[in-house]
Prior knowledge:
With 114 residues, chain A is mainly β. Helices cover 0% and strands 50% of the residues of chain A. Chain A has strands spanning 5-7, 10-13, 19-24, 31-37, 43-50, 53-57, 65-68, 75-79, 88-95, 104-105, 109-113. Chain B has 110 residues and is an all-beta fold. Chain B has no helices and 11 strands.
Amino acid sequence: EPEVTQTPSHQVTQMGQEVILRCVPISNHLYFYWYRQILGQKVEFLVSFYNNEISEKSEIFDDQFSVERPDGSNFTLKIRSTKLEDSAMYFCASTSGGGIETQYFGPGTRLLVL
Amino acid sequence: EDQVTQSPEALRLQEGESSSLNCSYTVSGLRGLFWYRQDPGKGPEFLFTLYSAGEEKEKERLKATLTKKESFLHITAPKPEDSATYLCAVQPYNTDKLIFGTGTRLQVFP
């Protein structure tokens, strides 16, 4: 069964460093999302991406964040200068169409900023 | 403001003891309500989508129902492998984003 994959599974970084989280969405999917979950808190929407551009972003997704689809299979989230409060699980999700289509989530990347 | 509230926060059941999880929501216009299961350290795993009040969906020991203000996830005769956090999320009109509740952590003991 097709699934969303994410790498790395864990990432430890120093405050101020740049990190890139990678996702391979399900192959025929066209809409891509990033969410994050701070330990013990809700899953929160960060950004949606379609047709090589951001469709929607949350207040969390400030200028320190960027997304890219560098090729036909990968979807990346970059954090330019990490802060302690960026420590969280980051989930990628994808759907075949927008709107009410089911969003399928990857296993997540656990990011720890020291 | 669009909001999702789940209760209880945690639920401990004996194997075979049926129960229900609640998801109350306020949303400007509901496109759909989603239930996901999340195991520790893993991503949300899709269970159900409900679109309109009165709709019901079933999968094995789980049944999800929807009214205009809330959704229930009924668990019939649960087994230890049903232990997980169950997440409810709503999708308002005119957006693709999901708005999640904090989840109900279910533990089923043999």
